[in-house]
Amino acid sequence: MSSILILIPLFGVMILNLPFRSVMKRLAFWFAAVLFLVQMIVAVFHHSTIWGSSMTIFDPFFKVDFLTDNLSFIVLLAIGVVSLTSLIVARYTLKDENERFNFINLLIIASIGMSGIVMVSDIFSLYVFLEITAVSAFILIALQKERQALEGAFKYIFLSAIATIMMLSSIALLLLLTGGTSFAAIKAVVSGPGASFFGKFAVGLFLCGLFIKGGVVPFHGWLPDAYSTAPSAVSVLLAGIITKVSGIYTLMRIVISVFGFDVHISHILMFAGAVSIVTGALAALGQSDFKRMLAYSSISQVGYIVLGLGTGTMLGILGAAFHLFNHAIFKTLLFVNSASVERETGTRNMDSLGGLSAKMPVTGATSVIAFLSTSGIPPLAGFWSKLMIIVALWMSSNYAYAVIAVAASALTLAYFLSMQRRVFFGKVAEGLENIKEAPGGLVFVSIALAAITIGVGLAFPVFYTQLIEPIKELITW
Amino acid sequence: MNIAMWETFLRFGFFIVMVFIAGLYCMLITRNIMRALIGLELLTKGVTLLIIVAGYVTGKVALAQTMVITLIVIEVVVMAVAAGVIVSIFRHNGSLDARNLRSLKG
Amino acid sequence: MTLNTILLIIMTLMALYTVVARSLLKATIGLAVTSAVMTILMFNLDSPLAAVFELSVCTGLITVVFASAIALTKPLTHKETIEVSKNKFRRYWYLPVIMVLSGVFMAFSNIPSSLFQPQAAAGAEDVRHVLWNARQLDLFGQIIIMLAGAFSIVILFKEVRKK
Questions:
Q1: Which B residues 18-77 touch C at CB under 8 Å?
Q2: Do A169 and B47 touch (CB under 8 A)?
Q3: Contacts of residue A128 in chain C, CB cutoff 8 Å?
Q4: Which of A12, A23, A99, A193 has the greatest CB tally within 10 Å of its CB?
């Protein structure tokens, strides 16, 4: 049953490209919207019996055992939400109809790739779907063929290809060690006390590849360029979900279910996470391009997730998974706000903006909610996930890392307040007197995402028991 | 596994590492972005051979071949996209020099 | 020396040539010859299907893609080429030195085979059965990525009419 998340979009893309061009273009938007809504509903109501039954029609040619457990469901929900948001943003920011049609097709292919990453149980198929997601991301960044976007896409292609080479070499070495490529076969050989030097070397190579894909320092070089120069709808998709699923979710899945935890992996993850937090926060302070600052902020928040994962305790891992979901929501909201600002004012340079909160009240208010959640202010959602990570660090006696995490929250508040002051508060800058609020669809999306952030924060106990706590079953050490 | 297989693997591994070094060197030293793409392609060749050798040594030739076939298809698409981006960069800048790609700072 | 070792040496030398070749077109041809030598190596390693794929796709298709990309991006004028290549020779001197040094290093380091654990005996399976029965998801992945590739060709190679 879980195979419908891959098969139906695939057939949809094939059908959408049949010769009835004018009909198909109008149909494409609604088809994609329905698809993502179905994905969100399926991810939330995953206890129902329809999910577990098998579809006998497809059995002769699609017998794949997918791995859908609780960690997958929360990420599937995030994929659905962010893809739907990106679709709606594209409707308002991509003016050309042909461009929008290409965008929708590539968006559907990217979501097939991401759903595949979340559901596979074999390390080579994981590589295949990682590449599908990456290729659609490359094309999406270069969609409008602006000069800077091509430069960002080029850097992303190269670093992503190096990451691919590392991961493939690791898969080849693991094939040598285990004779198979499924998660179960690798887990039997690599985890536990009997692992050999080559096993650890292969694991290390794979982790380096994932660090590049996820934008963890020191392999984050492509991230600010790609995020800031891509078209607005693509930045929403990239920052909201693609980097997280390709890099961070895969890291969590590999470390939890395949490689197992040992002291070295724990130290590497915590160190890389802490360095990311500090580097991202410090670099964000000195930016004048709105989206570039948001990109460095993403690096910083991803550092929190990796830090939480690195503790190895149950609370840390649950906090990391929760922060992954929260980050998807509030970072998407921030990028939607930047898309609204860019659409109305035509610039991303924060120094030439000012006083927009009078002209664009909804955008201003939702961006305040988003950054308060990022900095971890109660009672918003970000507060709970950061609290879980910091408490997990404290309880496992990593006092230095806990102090760094708390101090970086203050830095986060600092750079976001600076952004608010420059863009939204103060006097209205010259030339901007005629700005109106962004169109209805963008406003609706901003309000919806802000409502999710507030709602998850207020209804934290319900959210925790429904979606986060079941992840405990995966942690078997 | 027996010693003969292990020595075969070591011999192949030695030359594969040489190809990796050549590919990495090509990617890092050049100023022409097309040549960097050729270096990347060399690295991919090295990995392909590594997978085949790993399959041969463990006896799982069929699995290694299916992996290589899928890998080759994916790499062709990635190369095509990269070549497309490079051609578009050329149409904007008029040259393939990597020093023109430094407009994004900070 | 066995046939495999000779082929491996030829492959490494062709890879070296690809890196130091002066014009891009010669580098592409060097890449094609490297692929061809790899094909023969793969035949010798009991992998005929993968070898045929590699020959037709990597030696053929990728060379065509690179050559057309090079043709679409006009090369430097003759004088500039000679200027650039004089400097290049000095820089590329390092590569054979690095390779020889690392080769010597690897030859003298002994990796004991006890690092690898014993494998289960492998059954003799046909590639086509494995691909169709056990790795269907990869087949679907190939279809999906080829769709994405088709989009990329349409989007990226189209000339912008209005400037």
A1: 18-19, 21-23, 25-26, 29, 32, 34-35, 37-39, 41-42, 45, 48-49, 52-53, 55-56, 58-66, 68-70, 72-74, 76-77
A2: yes
A3: 137-138, 141-142, 145
A4: A12
Burial code of B30-51, b = ≥16 C-beta within 10 A, e = fewer?
bebbbbbbbbbbbbbbbbbbbb
Note whether A284 and A291 are within 8 A (CB): no
CB-based burial label for A150 (10 Å; 0-12, 13-18, 19+): buried
Phi/psi of residue A473, nearest 5 degrees: -65, -25
Which of C47, C73, C126 is opposite residue B34, by nearest beta carbon?
C73
Q: In one letter, which amino acid is A106? A: L
The pLDDT score that the predictor gives to residue C28 is 92
Output the pTM of the full model: 0.91
- Name the residue facing A175 among B58, B82, B84 (closest C-beta): B58
Segment A287-343, tens digit of pLDDT: 888 889 999 999 999 999 999 988 888 888 888 988 999 999 989 999 998 888 888
What pLDDT, in 10s, does the model give residues C12-69?
999 999 988 888 889 999 999 999 999 999 999 888 999 999 999 998 899 999 998 8
Give me the pLDDT at residue C116, please: 55
How far C29 CA sits from the closest chain B CA (Å)?
A: 11
ipTM of the complex: 0.94
- Determine contact: B33 vs chain A, CB below 8 A: yes
Contact C122 B32 (CB under 8 A): no
Q: How many helices (H) and strands (E) would you count in chain B?
A: 3, 0
- Give the ranges where A346-380 is alpha helix by DSSP (H): 356-359, 361-375
Domain assignments of chain A as residue spans, ordered by start: 286-477
Rounded to an integer, what is the distance from CA A194 to the centroid of its chain?
A: 35
